[in-house]
TrEMBL record:
This is UDP-Glycosyltransferase/glycogen phosphorylase. Coiled coil: none annotated. GO terms for biological process: carbohydrate metabolic process. Residues 1-23 are annotated as: Disordered. Pfam families: EryCIII-like_C, Glyco_transf_28. The keyword Transferase applies. Keywords: Transferase. Residues 409-510 form the Erythromycin biosynthesis protein CIII-like C-terminal domain. Residues 90-251 form the Glycosyltransferase family 28 N-terminal domain. GO terms for molecular function: sterol 3-beta-glucosyltransferase activity.
């Protein structure tokens, strides 16, 4: 959707003339979207988008085994039913607060327990390491500081920051943090260790059991790197979230504040999800594409179609809320499920302090007031406001200190200040809960039958406040910036009414019958299609190889055994991709493709310049100094290394050399793993040593050389990207404008050979579609509408002839050039990797 900026528009606004809508950022961090008139054309566009989404094919599973038949498949299925499922390595990516992390822990514990026995790793911020590991789940740090993020969000609740934050460089810090977390999501899929220290390569792991390669990913949408990591590894992806993130007509996006005007609410609601995703890609598109191209080696993706990636691929979703609070929308597909709230039973082993137990026993159940991970600028002022509100409401209260530092000064007798305490223990002993509207705290309060008062700060918190008020479980939310002692006291008084108590108790009874964590775990395993991931010879193991000749799916053990017995040639083995994500569908038309290519060029130039600036600021790395030391002191250190003893990894390398008959006279070299590219390793060491020895002058020269190389690569890719995007536009336009069929999937390009093969195939199929369309469309038109339909069909056929012919002609050239450029750039990236 093109966004046209007007000269007189206010900061944070955008206008769309075609849809007759505007948007601006309000003080809650929500995008206020306003429709100025009834847009029937927009409704037609949304209906068509939903029809296309329903017809769109999901991520494709691994190609079936060659020679399989129905009887064979049924026999294999029967055999597999008596065999345990393969043990998977599952990475769970989570970005957010403690309330976002907590619902995933029960799911992880179920997946790693009997009978599944999967290895599950929760990958989130380092601040939650102790919390995750204390619950018996493996942890990996993806970086990021949730406390700093919360402080930033409170200071800048809107999507656009204030001038103070801009001057302080907060925008650059947050973007750098998002880049770090996306890189962390990839590391969490392939690295050993916990991600807290230096990176641990596979060569430096002593025990094979410590190695980790993800076989499946579970993620929440804000973690951002999920789909890209899954595409690179070719593994299943399952999204799990605590708030709605899939387009629907039933309600608007939780981060959107709607101003409907005269437009139908259902149309505006559906439209809000696309706007929010597009804004995210507009702000982070360059960071995402840098992650895809430089870290993962994937093609860049334009925001014009990247923001529709997950709905188009029909990635499965499990939403963690109760349908007693938000019913399932009727327009969601079968790949979306609502499984219920997921609770961590942390209160069963909790023993309260004596003063807390004494306070609870002294009088009637108190009111709980806490804002969790929210960080406020004036904790003293907030403390005074809360104490005054409790006094006006005439209640007792337990006030949580939280991250905001509430509770300084003298505390009245009817108020108790509490630190970290399990909600499932505490909420059973209070009369109502007052909080910021986080999804986790909302779930805990409603599930225990406690009326809820939401004081939203930013983000999705107003959405949950509205849902609670709509369900009758609490008052209409009053935002934090508008909250006074009087308004909070009135909200507490409203929540304690009998009618609210009855409504929330009814919801609690319904939630008690649900099993959110268990249903989410079962939903995940059902969508895995685990039988298709088994090894054919060892069904209890995961298949990771595919025999090119027979199509057999083999585990590592089976493949090694067959190669050792000379039954299978190792040259015929290919890595098995259990999921193929079709992410390069491209533009809807040639003009959109040209715009996307130009935008991608500008973004690439900006990224190259930013990288150049960062390289100039870098100081010599420790690895450079170590490389310099190795070149100077290696001979003198050999004896000392032997005197320190030999590790199990060194013994493994010694055995490998003996088996490979590569034993050397120099004893120290026998305990090192033979390098598959010794010349490249030596080159990297020399470059790193020169960088450390050359100082600032070498750093400037090196950064400039990299910059010139990056600009050259960007320039080489620009014309290829232009023709490639236009070819996609010509190829896809008939499916949008002439017929309603989904565009045909293309094969993947893995090198120059596959690029040439694909170019020839698309050339033939493109002209084939053009010629078939001339006969097909007039025939179908005449069959449906007679002579008038014949004329319309003839027009569609001639239009298809032009677009398909242009697509075939452009594809023939651009696919070959694209594969050649891709191969050369990958080789150049490998050579410069150590620099």
């Amino acid at each position: 959707m093109p966004l046209n900026f007007h000269k007189n528009q206010k900061r944070g606004e955008f206008h769309d003339n075609k849809a007759q809508s505007t948007g601006r950022v309000n003080t809650f961090g929500q995008v206020a979207i306003q429709f100025h008139k009834n847009t029937h054309a927009l409704r037609h566009w949304i209906d068509k988008a939903q029809d296309e989404a329903a017809a769109c094919r999901p991520a494709r599973c691994a190609r079936p085994r060659r020679g399989s038949t129905t009887l064979v498949d049924e026999f294999i299925k029967e055999q597999n039913s008596n065999t345990s499922a393969p043990r998977l390595n599952i990475a769970i990516h989570i970005c957010g607060s403690r309330g976002d992390v907590q619902p995933f822990i029960p799911i992880a514990k179920l997946l790693q327990a009997a009978p599944h026995h999967h290895r599950v790793r929760i990958c989130t911020h380092p601040a939650f390491k102790d919390f995750v590991e204390s619950n018996g789940v493996e942890f990996f740090s993806i970086g990021g500081d949730p406390e700093a993020l919360m402080a930033y969000m409170v200071k800048n609740p809107g999507l656009l920051p204030n001038m103070q934050s801009i001057k302080a460089g907060d925008i650059g810090k947050r973007r750098k943090e998002m880049a770090e977390m996306m890189d962390g999501t990839w590391r969490s899929c392939i690295e050993a260790g916990d991600g807290m220290g230096e990176r641990i390569s596979a060569l430096n792991v002593d025990a094979a059991e410590d190695l980790f390669i993800a076989d499946a990913i579970i993620a929440n949408p804000p973690s951002m790197g999920h789909i890209h990591c899954a595409e690179k590894l070719g593994i299943p992806l399952h999204m799990v979230f605590t708030m709605p993130w899939s387009p629907t007509k039933a309600f608007h996006h939780p981060l959107a504040a709607m101003e409907y005007g005269e437009v139908e609410k259902s149309v505006a609601n559906y439209f809000s999800f696309g706007i929010m995703e597009l804004l995210t890609w507009q702000g982070l598109g360059d960071v995402i594409n840098k992650f895809r191209t430089q870290t993962l080696g994937l093609d860049a993706m334009s925001p014009l179609w990247g923001h529709r990636l997950l709905p188009r691929l029909r990635i499965p979703y499990s939403y963690l809320w109760s349908q007693a609070l938000i019913p399932r929308p009727s327009d969601w597909g079968e790949h979306i499920n609502i499984t219920g709230f997921s609770f961590l039973d942390a209160g069963s082993n909790y023993t309260p302090p004596d003063d807390l137990a004494e306070f609870l026993a002294k009088g009637p159940p108190p009111v709980y007031i806490g804002f969790g991970s929210i960080v406020v600028d004036d904790p003293v002022g907030l403390t005074k406001l809360l104490f005054e509100a409790v006094k006006l409401a005439g209640v007792r209260a337990i006030v949580s200190k939280g991250w905001g530092g509430v509770g300084g000064g003298e505390v009245p007798e009817n108020i108790y200040l509490i630190g970290n305490c399990p909600h499932d223990w505490l909420f059973k002993r209070v009369s109502c809960v007052v909080h910021h509207g986080g999804a986790g705290t909302t779930a805990a309060g409603i599930a225990l039958g406690k009326p809820t008062v939401v004081v939203p700060f930013f983000g999705d918190q107003p959405f949950w406040g509205q849902m609670i008020a709509k369900a009758g479980a609490g008052p209409v939310p009053v935002p934090f910036k508008q909250m006074t002692a009087e308004s909070l006291a009135n909200s507490i008084t409203f929540a304690l009414q009998d009618s609210v108590q009855v409504a929330v108790q009814k919801m609690a009874a319904s939630i008690a019958e649900e099993d959110g964590a268990g249903d989410t775990m079962r939903d995940f395993e059902q969508r895995l299609n685990i039988d298709a991931m088994r090894c054919q010879l060892c069904p209890e193991r995961l298949a990771i190889w595919r025999d090119k000749q027979t199509g057999a799916h083999l585990s590592g053990l089976a493949a090694c055994t067959l190669v050792e017995k000379n039954v299978l040639d190792v040259k015929h083995l290919r890595l098995l991709r259990h999921r193929h994500y079709y992410t390069h569908e491209g533009a809807e038309g040639p003009f959109v493709g040209a715009v996307a290519a130009f935008g991608g060029l500008m973004a690439s130039l900006g990224t190259d310049t930013s990288d150049f600036s960062q390289r100039l600021k870098k100081r010599p790395r420790e690895s450079d100094l170590e490389a310099l030391k190795r070149t100077l002191t290696r001979d003198d250190s050999d004896d000392a290394r032997l005197e320190k003893g030999i590790t199990s990894r060194q013994f493994h390398h010694l055995a490998y050399r003996m088996a490979a008959k590569s034993y050397e006279d120099d004893m120290i070299h026998n305990f090192e793993k033979p390098s598959s590219r010794p010349g490249l390793t030596a080159l990297r060491d020399r470059v790193a040593a020169r960088r450390a020895k050359g100082g600032r002058g070498y750093q400037i020269v090196s950064a400039t050389a990299h910059y010139i190389g990056d600009l050259t690569a960007t320039g080489a890719k620009a014309p290829v990207a232009l023709f490639y995007n236009m070819a996609n536009g010509f190829r896809n336009f008939p499916s949008y404008a002439i017929r309603n069929d989904p565009a045909r999937r293309r094969d993947e390009i893995t090198g120059f050979g596959s690029g040439c093969k694909l170019a020839g195939k698309e050339f033939v199929l493109g002209f084939g579609d053009a010629l078939v369309g001339i006969a097909r469309h007039p025939y179908l038109g005449a069959k449906q509408e007679g002579a008038l339909g014949f004329g319309k069909g003839l027009g569609r056929g001639l239009g298809g002839l032009y677009f398909h012919s242009m697509a075939g002609e452009l594809t023939l050239h651009c696919e070959i050039c694209r594969s050649d450029v891709t191969s050369n750039l990958r080789r150049t990236r490998i050579l410069l990797e150590g620099n």
